[in-house]
Amino acid sequence: MTLSDPGDALGSALRDARSASWSVRAAAGRRLAGAAEDAEVAAVLHRLLLDGQDTAVTQDTAEALLERGDAHGLRMVLAALARADDDTADHLDAAVDNVCRQSDEGLARLEALCRVLVSDADASVRDEAREILRARDDRG
User: Fold this and answer.
1) What integer is the mean pLDDT of 53-67?
2) Which of 13, 28, 83, 110 stands the most exposed, by the fewest C-beta atoms within 10 Å?
3) What superkingdom heads the lineage (predicted)?
4) Is residue 1 part of a domain?
5) How many structural domains does the chain have?
6) CATH number, domain at 13?
């Protein structure tokens, strides 16, 4: 059975990620975030993070990935941020603000995860993580 089999929840979310409806795509992004380690799911999440039709899809998907509270979710958001146009980047930044910058605990977790990601294999992820740390130090 593959992830895109019609009978399973992930298969349904993967199909919904191709919907013409922004709200269905956004809900799919939220449902798929928990399985982001899977290569097929990760590719769909990346597309949703850079959704060219509606930035609500971008922001909802990013928030769901960040709510995981782990390096993998943040890495996906940072990889998208590095490739995003200005409008999409604003919504990715807003997701980071909404999830990670609302409490001292959230800020500490963001900083700790960025310290891990400054050693990432992807240079764009490393650069975005460094930028977050630099901005934190500047505010500091």
Assistant:
1) 97
2) 83
3) Bacteria
4) no
5) 1
6) 1.25.10
